[in-house]
Amino acid sequence: MSDTEGDAPQSDQELGITESKEYATGDWYAEVVQKAELASYGPEGMSGFIVTRPRGYALWERLQGHLDAMFKETGVQNAYFPLFIPESYLEREKDIVEGFDPEVAWVEEAGTEELEERLAVRPTSESIINPYLSQWVRSHRDLPIRVNQWCSVVRWEATETKPFFRTKEFLWQEGHTAHETRDEAWEETLTRLDQYETLYEDVLALPVLRGQKPEHDKFPGADTTTTVETLMPDGKTVQGATSHYLGTSFAEAFDITYADEDEDQKLAHTASWGVSWRALGALIMTHSDEQGLVVPPTIAPEQVVIVPIWQADTKDEVLAYAEDVADALDEAGLRVELDDRDTRNPGFKYNEWELKGVPLRLEVGPAEVDDGEVTAVHRPDGESVTLDRETVVDETRAELDAVYAKLYAAAEDHMDGEIRDAESRDEILGTIGQHGGYVRAPWCGEEACESEIKDQIAAEIVLVPFPEEDDYHADGGDEDGECAVCGEPAERTAYYAKTY
Amino acid sequence: MSDTEGDAPQSDQELGITESKEYATGDWYAEVVQKAELASYGPEGMSGFIVTRPRGYALWERLQGHLDAMFKETGVQNAYFPLFIPESYLEREKDIVEGFDPEVAWVEEAGTEELEERLAVRPTSESIINPYLSQWVRSHRDLPIRVNQWCSVVRWEATETKPFFRTKEFLWQEGHTAHETRDEAWEETLTRLDQYETLYEDVLALPVLRGQKPEHDKFPGADTTTTVETLMPDGKTVQGATSHYLGTSFAEAFDITYADEDEDQKLAHTASWGVSWRALGALIMTHSDEQGLVVPPTIAPEQVVIVPIWQADTKDEVLAYAEDVADALDEAGLRVELDDRDTRNPGFKYNEWELKGVPLRLEVGPAEVDDGEVTAVHRPDGESVTLDRETVVDETRAELDAVYAKLYAAAEDHMDGEIRDAESRDEILGTIGQHGGYVRAPWCGEEACESEIKDQIAAEIVLVPFPEEDDYHADGGDEDGECAVCGEPAERTAYYAKTY
Questions:
Q1: If we measure between CA atoms, which residue out of B384, B310, B307, B313 comes closest to residue B351?
Q2: Nearest CA in chain A to B56
């Protein structure tokens, strides 16, 4: 779409999705994002940027609301750190990490000044947050400290833009915490991973696998990177969110120390964790279809749309009935829209609200009025259910739950069917090549074995189970086996997949 | 404060505010901001930036919560536009406005690229939002359209930093709307001004004056700029928020047109409106004192702190009683903190929570336990009230309301006493010179008359009443008079003041 093309649908035809989800997933996804009015592409000269339109931003706000509430219940405080980071601050991090230099946008001139030191537009905020944690933490009484910020970050990646999945500026949250001991920091890491899992499974209706990244693919400087992964319909995995136990490496680099109860100076153990709007990309891509957007009621801007169906002689009666139903649902706290436009026929309205992803449609015509009923239609599959007007609030809630369960079950069935085992290099290559999805295989732990797969089909090890859940790990089980690639003794189970 | 100095108070002495609010307002303000842990100064090399600490950000989140709810109830949708704006987009605005060029931070290099066109870090978003409104609006059915974003903006001002009042990066919201007619856009402008007034008066406990900016001080390109102004303790006014009716000038520049019911193409009328975290600056400066931060319960992170007072033999009993009270208040939805630290004595706790601005302290000792009572102490003035344990929830709510009323009344008394009339140039100069505050005087409407005052004492016309409320305006009243400065016939009432 060019930046001068209008987006508002003006006719039935413009409402339709024309691309195939199965055969042209990328094009179909881009079409859904635009026609459902979630996002527009950025201005000319700013490829890689998107404008998040109200219907897209509303999804982000609800995601934020759910996650932020979980954070606050567990001791997290929000804060706001500057957008810019002096180059020398970024450099300081280089002792431990590769850094984001090749992807950084730099400000060298501001106002009428040539700056003495150039400033990075934050690609992530470790290097500016940690020096402040160092200031704020003196004693064990100041720990744990948990700060989080909701903000945008900029990473100048050259790859093709995919709204929400890959953009040069993206919205995310980044949490940074410091603790007295390894155990506390590790518990923090897992608490956040659990919350991300809850976000995906209980809010976005997306099942996830959870585990660790292999050693060679950890966040730079981290002791352990944990991840939740979810599978897209085209068989590629999305890294849904990561939570890192950073050991004491960042505390060393940034001098985050505290006086313990005996007044001895100790290094803090730190953790960091984040999720970006890529979660919305996974949401949209998984549930939507060739009628447009599909989202679960947990996060939908409107949960219910009521479409009244009238002739001239029944209009007043039907509309009054529909309004009563709308009021009842609204009072019960449901997000309901009554589409009483005169200028559109019911068929157009069905199409438009299907495109926009409203989970449940309630149809009200003269027959429903006569029978004291309401016809409910599930967005994902068009299943139709008759509700009793008297109990319409409770029944609507039940239907919304049913829609949620249906979306989750479909995603779960898909994922469960796409985890396959392999015992040889050729089997890994062949299985991913043919089916996509995850291939589970015993692994010696060497990056070289992953490289052999990566070089051939661009699949990589996206996850290894936690040691205690890994049959091939000394702590997890007694399974003996051989690395599927090199034949050396297996030390972990590896999940290979292609990635977004 | 240097960026390596710690902030956490370690002793009674460090808790104290050492500067005088009356005699060193600026230093006192900076000390309150830091010791109450609201903000720290930015890193070396980034003067003009601040780090908003959790206790400061919590104030902003509550302000956002209140205002965003008002916006959403009145048809506003949030969105998110890119952080960067291509230079050519900013240029496009130059037809109508001076622009922010001298204050812009520029990105010319990103990743490994030298950019073809340099990108501005947004100083405000008119120039990127309006082109999208132009795309999204085709028909009268698409109007009104109201988008708002909560974001940070960067303006490279060279003046001295004052946290929240004046920083190179600041948080704000900017709303941009388009309408069919002048009347609708003007109504929008006033709706937002009303909401800002509500924010100040009902949430921040700050009385405001409302009106317009003089013609020569309007937002560039605007037809009318409306404002709410609030008076600081040192007699300077703060522009609290502005709401602009932009006429059709922006619609012309950015081609925001719509087909009306007859399919005729019409120019939209637009409005924009915003408030920044300067509102927090006004809040902090007005209410706080030489014991530290004072904020009203509407916006306080903790509304109530309970300090138990025990000896070894009464500890269990006192603590159990205090916990019961805390639970009761918490269950009633109040934000309550029980300070049960063993390591601090009650006096230290009083000082610390006074510094941090908790509006109401509840003291519980053996006497309170015996009598089934709780002692409540108002933060602003130390007034002490005995509450009955049986009705502690309702009585606490009443005391919080009393604290709010007390703060508002004090600010209102101050402002009311600082509005003085003048009838001559010398009287304007003398009155502001001696007292500060607002001076109200008949005005001919010419900028030259303001300049005479401005040149002498750096006071300016910060507000003129709306025409219908202005005795000197043809539409407002029949008052005849002469401009206090030049003696020509008065056409408006001018409020002169020094400004933040």
A1: B307
A2: A79
- Give CATH for domain B12-287: 3.30.930.10
pLDDT tens per residue, range B225-237: 999 999 999 999 9
Q: What is the pTM of this model?
A: 0.95
Q: Got the DSSP string for A56-113?
A: HHHHHHHHHHHHHHHHHHTT-EE-B--SEEEHHHHHHGGGT---SGGG-EEEEEETTE
Three-state DSSP class for A360? strand
Report which of A231, A124, A237 is spatially closest to residue A170, judged by C-alpha positions.
A124
Tell me the two tokens of residue A178: 């410091």
Tokens of A143: 């720990």
Q: The tokens of B252 are what?
A: 């012309």
DSSP string, A40-60: EE--TT-TT-EEE-HHHHHHH
Q: Do A107 and B105 touch (CB under 8 A)?
A: yes
Looking at the domain that runs over A64-276, which CATH code has it been given? 3.30.930.10
SS3 label, residue B157: coil
State the Cα–Cα distance between residues A404 and B465, nearest whole angstrom.
Answer: 54
Q: Which CATH class is domain A304-405?
A: alpha beta
- Which of A453, A432, A448 lies closest to A216 in space, CA to CA? A448
Domain positions in chain A: 64-276, 304-405, 419-498
To the question of domain B419-498 being in CATH 1.10.3430.10, the answer is no
| Interface ipTM | 0.95
Is A40 in Cβ contact with B132 (below 8 Å)?
yes
Q: Which pLDDT tens digit goes with each residue over A88-109?
A: 998 887 766 665 677 999 999 9
**Using CB atoms and an 8 Å cut-off, which of residues 28-57 of chain B contact chain A?**
40, 42-46, 49-54, 56-57
Asked if A128 lies within 8 A of B43 by C-beta distance, the reply is: yes
Residues whose CB falls within 8 Å of the CB of residue A105, separated by 6 or more in sequence, listed in order: A120, A121, A154, A156, B84, B107, B109, B110, B111, B119
Q: Which class in CATH covers the domain with range B304-407?
A: alpha beta
A27 class by beta-carbon count within 10 Å (0-12 exposed, 13-18 middle, 19+ buried): middle
Residues of chain A short of pLDDT 70, as ranges, are 1-14, 95-100
- Asked if A53 and B135 come within 8 Å (Cβ–Cβ), the reply is no
* pLDDT tens, position by position, B377-432: 999 999 999 999 999 999 999 999 999 999 999 999 999 999 999 999 999 999 99
Which positions 422-461 of A are in contact with B (Cβ < 8 Å)?
Answer: none
CA distance A298 to A385: 20
